[in-house]
Write a structure and sequence with these properties.
Length: 76
Amino acid sequence: MLSLIFSKIGLRIGMVLAAIAAVVTVLFSARQAGRQAERVDTMKRNLESINAQRKAAAAAPSDRSGIVERLRNGEF
């Protein structure tokens, strides 16, 4: 009889601990997903900035005569 009571209590405690572990796991996963989404956004912004710099560098004149010509044409 006593072992039956302890086994029921042990089973309930085990179920409660399993439920708590499941909730903690879900919350931790959601937190990680938020961090990863933030990293993706940061990487996108960085890549956009790098691409804009590369486009500007590609459109820039390569020597002084090119700079003078663009200044005379009013392209700056």
